Amino acid sequence: MTDFSETSDVSSSDDWCNTAIDDAQARANPRVAQAVERITELRQSIDNVDAAIVSLLAERFKYTAEVGKLKAQAGFAPEDREREQRQAARLNEVAVNAGLDPSVEEHYLQFVVTEVKRRHQCIARAGAKSGC
Ligand SMILES: C=C(O[C@@H]1C=C(C(=O)O)C=C[C@H]1O)C(=O)O
User: Fold this and answer.
1) Which structural domain, as residue segments, surrounds residue 15?
2) ipTM of the assembly?
3) Of 89, 30, 122, 97, which Cα lies nearest the Cα of 130?
4) Atom number in ligand 1 closest to CA 112
5) Domain CATH for 99
């Protein structure tokens, strides 16, 4: 159990990765209770952001699926490196302006574009009605 006495904080605990929020500690210590209350609020905000991100991702994949079908019909390759480079530069700027570590945005873009290209390849091979 985390020692949340006056002389200790979470960073000095050696079981930081196993410690769950503890209602009994919150009842016994007003400082813990305050932290738990704020964490609960913040988690609500995190849930809202996660829901928005997932909804936006679904929207993005709808657009890219349409691009994939059009590319396959027109005989274009699934990948467009120039477009990817322009996106990377633009999103880097967005991340920096938003105060986000650009490596987080780079990981996101890498993941999502790789998945889109995999689906485009699938569409190109199996056809637009394949459920890729
Ligand atoms: C969606 C496209 O296809 C691929 C996927 C991209 C993406 O997910 O943003 C960008 C470029 C392409 O490599 C596209 O060409 O616009």
Assistant:
1) 10-126
2) 0.98
3) 122
4) 8
5) 1.20.59.10
